[in-house]
Amino acid sequence: MRHKRRGKKLNRNSSHRxxxxxxxxxxLILLARxxxxxxxxGHGRLITTVSKAKFLRPFVDRLVTLSKRAALxxxxxxxxxxxxxxxxxxxxxxxxxxxxxxxxxxAVTLRRRAFAMLRSDVAVSVLFxxxxxxxxxxxxxxxxxxxxxxxxxxxxxxxxxxxxVGERDRRLGNLKT
Length: 177
What we know:
about 10% strand; mainly alpha; elongated; 5 helices
């Protein structure tokens, strides 16, 4: 029995499990980045097994929460003068610079924590620039898992669709793996 044993193993050792979780999270985040210059969002959905999707959901939710906290810290920061100007040099020598650093440093820390979890610069920038803005008015539940009726070819495993909630809800017509 597995009493007081937290988390799923997914029949993998810890390093394989961490790598799989990281790779799936990066793939899901990169699929959610804007695809055109007009700011249209990507589809942000991934097809995998039900157990892997359920394993991935809290991890991605935590990452989106980190990005939202960083966006909130950045929004509290005052306006910065143009770099290299006389006013910028005066501002750097003043107490305003220290105040700005104290306000912005938690956002930098959160960005570094997200990078430690994902190990992808592009995924972190999509997460902090696009997804934080997209989910700023939502209090959790950023990812949904939808079971798919079609079974996987080979082992007949039950498949699920994991996707970001929001703009294109319940348009599951064109699913490509």
